[in-house]
Specification:
single chain, 239 residues, alpha/beta, 5-stranded parallel sheet, 4-stranded antiparallel sheet, 43% helix, binds calcium ion
Length: 239
């Protein structure tokens, strides 16, 4: 039984019905809102676990809905946008959304995004209980206190910028970080040249991190948007 409560914010009845039918079939609980005002009210009264938020709403801009909710809640938000709203999607991520879906999307894509978000929730809940000075994901381990990262037990020889990048992605595991967000955090700027540098540093980091940089396991590229660290499942222990 899936106990997650999803708030579906969508004014288009056909898209809403696709989403709610899918949620129902996969035993999610859900509530709905057809505009931004109602979305904010439902979030405060029902405390959903995840919000699916359409960016094109009749009464207010979806990005403003995120900004309002982020003043008091860290609830994961997955935005849904049309292909023509690419810049809105990036603004939404910069305003604090965690992930995005582009219309038209398939049921499989929707379910995959929900699973990634659920893993993120589980990690965030665990972080409060466990030692925060060491991060582990699959075979990657970061010892924050020592300032070192290891893959399969072997120290990774990272430059200071590569290490900062890796830590930033690790701190936000499961969340899509935009180019602007990353370059602001690493260089304090997000000029065209910083974004070009980011690509270079990301490529060198991946060479050190990924067994096969052409099919990365740890760091996912979102073309034109940014990057995300994925939760890598633990390899099964062999006895
Ligand atoms: Ca809409």
């Amino acid at each position: 039984m899936n106990k997650y409560l999803i708030l579906v914010v969508e004014d288009d009845p056909s898209v809403k019905s696709l989403i709610t039918t899918t949620l129902q079939m996969h035993e999610y609980r859900y509530i709905t809102a057809a505009n931004g005002t109602s979305a904010i009210m439902q979030t405060s009264s029902h405390r959903p676990d995840i919000i699916l938020l359409d960016l094109g709403l009749p009464d207010m801009d979806g990005v403003d809905v995120i900004k309002r909710i982020r003043t008091w809640s860290n609830v994961p938000i997955i935005v849904i946008s049309a292909r023509s709203e690419d810049t809105d999607k990036i603004d939404a991520l910069d305003a604090g959304a965690d992930d995005y879906l582009t219309k038209p999307f398939s049921v499989e894509e929707l379910l995959a995004r929900l699973r990634v978000t659920q893993r993120r929730i589980a990690i965030m809940q665990n972080e409060n209980k466990t030692d925060e000075s060491v991060f582990t994901n699959g075979m990657l381990r970061i010892d924050y206190a020592a300032g070192c990262a290891y893959m399969n037990g072997e120290a990774l020889h990272l430059t200071p910028i590569e290490y900062k990048l890796l830590c930033l992605l690790a701190h936000n595991i499961g969340k899509v970080l935009t180019h602007t967000y990353i370059t602001q955090k690493i260089w304090g700027n997000s000029l065209e040249s910083d974004i070009a540098s980011l690509r270079v540093f990301m490529a060198t980091l991946r060479k050190k991190l990924e067994a096969n940089p052409n099919s990365p396991q740890y760091i996912q590229t979102h073309i034109g948007v940014g990057y995300r660290m994925l939760k890598v499942e633990e390899p099964l222990q062999e006895f």
